[in-house]
Amino acid sequence: MLAASTFAAPAQAQVQRSPYGPPITLDQAKRVVAAAEAEARKNNWTVSIAVVDSGCNLVLLHRIDNSNLGGIAVSQDKANSACLYRASTRGAEQALAQGGLNIRLLALRGMVPLEAGIPIVVNGQQIGSIGVSGVQSNEDGLIAQAGADALK
């Protein structure tokens, strides 16, 4: 409970987190990655894209040619963070930027306060999460959102 309340920035305190649902399937994960990759390629961005299921297990990892190697791990970390805390990592990034007691976010196991970890919600249930890394944080976020929206 401390993790959930600590993660909530003042502006996000009213955010409803979706309950965990059945795990995302490989076919669904492929659709998510295809949509995310299309957004990245549209902008000539090279990134790594990770999709985890509702149990935070890696389902699919996709690295666009010539994307930086560090993005492989970071994309997985962002996806796991969104899964563990059932919230976009953008909220943690914004809360940390405010400073003060929000620095506690750094002590939360698996917390990645960088934009582009987004829960994948279908029928009101979180079936997985997507994480993207390789360009600027806000650009990673646009790619991740395109992927998360693929199943809506």
From TrEMBL:
Superkingdom classification of source: Bacteria
Alphabetized Pfam families for the sequence: HbpS-like
The name under which this protein is listed is Heme-binding protein
Source species of the chain: Phreatobacter stygius
